[in-house]
Q: What sequence folds into this?
């Protein structure tokens, strides 16, 4: 009886054979992949995610996100959720489509570019497919009667699919026409308190990037059409990025002017150019939206005052793709440990081998034991394609980016039985070692979920290295 059938009868088991992961494979005696595509025009993340069944292109600028990609995205959302909860933020959902009247009140309607989708309903009413939600968030607060200063601050966030009529989509999920973002809108009773909120959220963003094993560069930025009193962008160093920053070799200050001859901070002349990709943006808005949209609260003297507002965005689709772009090799995906679709893949012996029977039994026991570890629950998968050699499945595991591959091979029939552990970390060669089963389970029990190293305080410029 096949391992997959045994496992399915005993456990609710994750199996590679049942995983929808359509691969793009090269035909025999050919160096080119199947299909009418020019690989020279594809970024590393796009090629890897297409070839390994993480995403599938639907049409130009639009992609299906497949099960492994969606697991990674959901883990990224869970990571962001934890930091939003630490800030005291509450999740909501804002409509994608709103009446143009809100945007006309804020003054942004007249300045909308061609990349924003506008539409008209059956009553000839002008609508907009929201690219950002500052107006909607301010209007929501304006609808709350008798909002008191005692209820502030209020932090509201959401995940929303955004649409942008990109002229030239590129690099897969890095610049697509449909993408997922996390938006946070904060409301304080004074500008001073809003500035404190701004620093807290900025610090949380740096922690998120650290947990993704991506060091972030935070730079002052133009507020653009969103406006406000201050604005900062978060960048990661990335070869397919669209910006070039000058990093001072003396003090690590980032000069955004690419023709600058001296550091703006220390006046040093030594610098290096870093190609970066924007992955987040923050805005200190003050009353930019609360005044025109009448979002007010009653202060301690019961006098109506405009809410002091700030907004924050993270491009989750872009962060996911940028993580793959920065951490992977040309042949193998390396996920940030925190968002790897599965932490562990178990690879049992090949069907027909001398150790197959023992390996089948041990694989089931090992899967159950690892799923009893709280931080590994539903984070283990078995590569039950036992018609394939162990070597072929190890290569597949490394290309897909599983952080740990557990090989239940020849050593499983020795006394005591041992399991081979292949650890696959970003920017490092695979590390292989073996442990008896009880020690292996203890090893993974003590291996707490990966947390990024602490970053510098918000407001500092942090040099990124990929």
A:
């Amino acid at each position: 009886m096949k391992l997959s059938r045994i496992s399915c009868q005993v456990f609710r088991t994750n199996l590679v054979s049942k995983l929808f992961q359509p691969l793009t494979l090269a035909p025999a005696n050919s160096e080119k992949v199947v299909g009418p595509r020019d690989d020279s025009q594809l970024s590393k993340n796009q090629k890897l995610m297409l070839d390994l069944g993480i995403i599938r292109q639907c049409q130009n600028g639009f992609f299906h996100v497949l099960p492994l990609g969606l697991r990674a995205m959901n883990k990224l959302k869970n990571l962001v959720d934890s930091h939003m909860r630490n800030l005291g933020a509450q999740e909501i959902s804002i409509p994608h489509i709103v009446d143009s009247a809100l945007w006309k009140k804020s003054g942004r309607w007249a300045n909308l570019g061609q990349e924003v989708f506008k539409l008209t309903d059956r009553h000839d009413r002008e609508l907009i497919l929201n690219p950002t939600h500052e107006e909607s968030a301010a209007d929501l607060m304006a609808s709350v009667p008798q909002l008191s200063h005692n209820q502030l601050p209020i932090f509201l966030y959401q995940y929303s699919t955004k649409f942008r009529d990109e002229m030239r989509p590129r690099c897969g999920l890095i610049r697509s026409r449909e993408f997922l973002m996390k938006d946070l809108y904060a409301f304080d009773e004074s500008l001073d308190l809003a500035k404190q909120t701004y620093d807290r959220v900025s610090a949380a963003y740096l922690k998120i990037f650290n947990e993704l094993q991506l060091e972030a560069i935070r730079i002052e930025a133009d507020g653009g059409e969103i406006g406000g009193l201050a604005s900062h962008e978060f960048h990661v160093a990335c070869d397919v990025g669209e910006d070039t920053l000058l990093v001072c070799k003396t003090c690590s200050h980032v000069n955004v002017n690419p023709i600058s001859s001296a550091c703006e901070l220390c006046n040093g002349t030594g610098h290096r150019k870093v190609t970066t990709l924007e992955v987040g943006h923050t805005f200190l808005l003050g009353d930019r939206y609360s005044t025109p949209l009448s979002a007010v609260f009653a202060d301690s003297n019961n006098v109506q005052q405009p809410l002091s507002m700030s907004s924050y965005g993270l491009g989750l689709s872009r962060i996911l793709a940028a993580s793959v772009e920065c951490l992977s090799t040309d042949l193998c995906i390396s996920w940030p440990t925190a968002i790897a679709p599965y932490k562990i893949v178990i690879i049992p012996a090949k069907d027909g081998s001398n150790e197959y029977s023992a390996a089948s039994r041990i694989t089931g026991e090992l899967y159950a034991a690892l799923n009893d570890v709280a931080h590994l629950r539903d984070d283990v998968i078995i590569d039950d394609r036992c018609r394939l050699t162990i070597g072929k499945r190890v290569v597949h595991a490394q290309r897909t980016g599983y952080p740990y591959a557990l090989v239940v091979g020849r050593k499983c029939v020795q006394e005591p039985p041992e399991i081979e552990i292949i650890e696959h970390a970003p920017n490092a060669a695979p590390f292989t070692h073996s442990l008896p089963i009880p020690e292996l389970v203890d090893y993974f029990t003590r291996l707490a979920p990966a947390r990024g190293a602490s970053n510098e305080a918000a407001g500092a410029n942090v040099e990124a290295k990929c």
Remarks:
- Confidence is low (pLDDT under 50) at residues 1-10, 27-35, 451-466.
